[in-house]
Amino acid sequence: MASAQSLRLASSTxxxxxxxxRHHTDEGQGTKKNISPPLEWYDVPEGTKSFALVVEDxxxxxxxxxxxxxxxxxxxxxxxxxxxxPEGFSGKGEEMGGDYAGIKEGHNDLKVPGWRGPRLPxxxxxxxxxxxxxxxxxxxxxxxxxxxxxxxxxGHVLGEATLTAKx
Length: 167
Fold this sequence. Notes:
There is one protein chain. By secondary structure, this protein is mainly beta. It has one domain (4-166): Phosphatidylethanolamine-binding Protein. Helix content is 7%, strand content 28%. It is built from two helices and eight strands. The chain has helices at residues 93-96, 146-153, and strands at 8-10, 39-42, 50-57, 70-78, 84-85, 104-105, 126-134, 157-166. The longest helix has 8 residues, at 146-153.
């Protein structure tokens, strides 16, 4: 295992600061729409007991106000034995079984659990995937939200990695 500074997040379909493929967005077509992207991580900090993932549009404006990040996906209690989420993972953790069965998907800003890709009135937004290596599992009840996750991980982050895609 490696130091906290070296945790890395990667994807075979998302490349840092490049355009997100359409099938990961809400603008895809039919079954090629809102497919959660594949993610994998490397150089896990020693002592990691779980991972949490928060995905946000960091350029989302309020209708008449400031920029307030829009949550697309929240995933918690990813065990340290798991080093990737395959493409289309969202909604299929229990079905996949094994170490994936205990992973919990939280509510996005559409107030539903799971991945919901961007559908925006204009393009040029940055979608930030932030992975946290934690020294414990999170116990957040039935309705997991980004706010609950960010509060609960305070003081428990061993490492953090970011991947940013454009939409």
